[in-house]
Structures are given as structure tokens and as C-alpha cells.
Here is the input.
Amino acid sequence: MVSNRESNLYQAHIIGQAIIIVALYLLVLALVLGVAYEQNIPTTSYLKYLGVIFGAFLFEAVGRPGHLRFAMSQSRRVAWRVTVRQASVMSIALLVFLVFSRDVRISRGFLAIYTITALVAVFLTNRFVFRKMIDYLTKRSASWSLRTVVLGPEEWSESVIAKMTRSNCAFSVDNVIHIGRYATVEEIREKLDGLPIDLLVASAYHLRPEVSAYLISRGERRGYRTWLPLELSRCKDRKFVVERVGDIQMLTPPPTPLENTFNVFAKSIFDKTVALFVVLFVLPPMIVFVWVLQRIYSPGPLFFVQERVGAYNQTFKIFKFRSMKVLNDDEARQATSDDDRFYPGASLLRKTSIDEFPQFLNVLMGQMSVVGPRPHMLKHEDDFQEHFERYGVRRSVKPGVTGLAQVKGFRGEINDSKDIRNRARHDILYIQSWSFFLDIRIILGTLLSVVKPHSTAY
Here is the structure.
């Protein structure tokens, strides 16, 4: 009910913004070129650019993560973050089209003025219009102002109310009824009789099974909805959805973006395209450079091949440029900043991540992705999972040549459990909020770190 309502509200907001963007484009076009410069406007060319802007706007809206969709009206920071995201996607699309079309009839001054104007308009609509839409619907429609009764222990009720009121769903918590775990059906009936209710929120965890069944049937009989918040989700900080398997309803974690078949296929095509380019044009000169460096300082195999853990606990052989001497005491031991196993010049390969580029061969073979959690050795996996209870979530996707944790500086040697948790949390955040936009950001961040390596890179 509420999730569908928010989804419809988001769609209405996007449609409204799209109309504003198109109208603003035409208005600025008429004022700048038609009035200020009195030029004859080449309509066809400018309509092409409008189509590019409109397409990029819709692309961003469809791919926007859920946590950025409904919090715009409550936080200036979130509204600005969404605005920057929208402006970046539209500007990049506009710039790429401008470069490849080479259309000299388009006024660069007009595009600059429109971009600035659109940025202001989009921010204002993100910050204020979404909230105004909710306020308007709440006042005009009884179905939007849900008269809510919360039923449960005092501490639980306060916690649930705080979380509900952070939503954009216009809840109106009119009554709070505090009860104990052993409250009977008769006691609860007396407390509810006579109260106007559109939504009843009760704690199934603190109620007897027959009381929970009574509350649901009472709501169906009297025409209001009954919600029973998931205590497992509240207590363990996990989110669950109901999924039907045959005739059984299961509580399961919500699907991540990379469980969608289309997303997996699209990411695979992107990975193979990038990997093919790197293997054909970037890797060959690197091979020559590393080969010469090794011939001078440490003759031996060009590549270092080692078994790593991939998606769904499947192991594979990873390729790296060899950065250590052929004979060393322990290949499984983590590298340190002053590791005596490095041959001269090898630290440069590691610091700039040049030693990782052969892994694009693993990407071509389908064992890795361009972006994803970094793969670890089986021995390290067994150790690391003991320090973070959700560590295994990393294995639900293919490991990556680079990842969110790496561009945030969580790479290199693991000294304590905090290092493991920071790395794993960023990997899980990536899995839960994946998008092509995020992949591009991580790739650009990785290229920047090659030029300006993190202090943890060695």
C-alpha cells in the first residue's frame, strides 16, 4: 500500500520534473537566441540536443537507488546529492553528443546558460516540490492521511514511531496503546473500541499468536489495515521481504540489483568490452615494460598465478604481474610497505596497480568483473569471515579488478579486524546499491588513484 503510493508519487515527481526541463529548454532557447541575439533557430539540431537531455534524465531517474528517491524533501544534503547526480548524467550525455556530432550551429553559450538554469530548477523541485505534493495530498485526500494506532510495549512503540515518521508517507500517529506481552484479546478489544483507525501497527513479537490473529481479522472486518513489523529486521538491522515459494510465504533479504538477469547480462557485456580494449591496447605495452624490468632485476615468470575465491565460493586462478622475487619464504603472507620479497621497481607496479592489469584476462574468461569486491585467497577468506558476520555477502557477485573499498582507500595490508570490516562494509554497500553510474564512478576513482595512489597502496 504505502510502498506503491510512494512509487506513484516518485513517478509523478519525475514526470513533473521532465515537463519543467523540456519547458525550460524551450523558454531559454527562445529568450537567448530568439530575443537576445535575434537569430534564426535551427530547430532540428536543437531538438536533437533536447532529446539527448531528456533521455539522460529518464536514464538517471530509472536507475536511481531507492534510498535517494524519497528522502529529498527531508534533507537539503540529499536533495543536493540527487541534483548533482541528475546534472552530471545530463551534462555528460550532452558533452559526449556535442563532441561526436561536431555541430557548429549549436550555441555553446545557450547550453551553458541552460545547464545552470536547469540545475537551479531541479534542485528547487527536489527540495520543495516533493514535500508540497505530500502536504497537498494529505490535506485533500483522506486516504493519504492515515490515522494510525500503535500497539505494543512503550520502548518498542517509541522506536517504531520514530522510524515511521521519517517516512514520506504522511502518517498521523493519533493513539499509542502500551500493552504487556501477556495481554488478552478482551483487554485489547476494550482499548481499541471507539478509536478511529486507518492503520494499526502492532508488535507480533510481544503478542500471543491468538492476539495477532485477532488483530488481523478485526482489521479486515472493520476496514483498516494491520501491520506487524518484522522483529528480526528491527533487532538485527536486516531488511526482509515476503516471497512466495509454491504455497509457502518466506521472509528473505530483498533482491540486490545484480540478482536481476538483465543487469547481470548488461554488466557482463560492459565488462567484456572494457576488458577486450585493455587486453588489446593497454596490456601489451605493460607486458613489455614489466618484462624488461623483470629481466634486469628478477628474471623469472612474467605472471604470478594464484588461486582465489570468486562468486559463490568458486575458486579460480588469478593473473598478476609478478612483483616478488621468484624465491620467497611465503607467497600467502600479506605484502607490507617494506617487504623484502619485492625486487627493485616492483613497489612502483604495486603502488600504481599496474600489477593488477593482467586480471582483465580473468574478466574476459568470465571469472571476474571490472568492478566488484576484491578476491582473496581461500586461507584469508576463512580468517576474515570470523571478524565480520556479513563477510560472505561479498561472494554473491563476481570479484572485481577494482572496487568501492579500494577507491575509498581500504586496500593493502590487513592489520586488524577494523580493516576487514571497513573493506567488507564497502563491498556490501556496492552490491546493494549497484548501478552503471556507480561502476563509472569507481573506474574514474581508480584511474585517479593510479596517478595519485592512496597511502595504503604498496
User: Anything to note?
Assistant: The chain is about 55% helix and 10% strand. Residues 261-297 form the longest helix (37 residues).
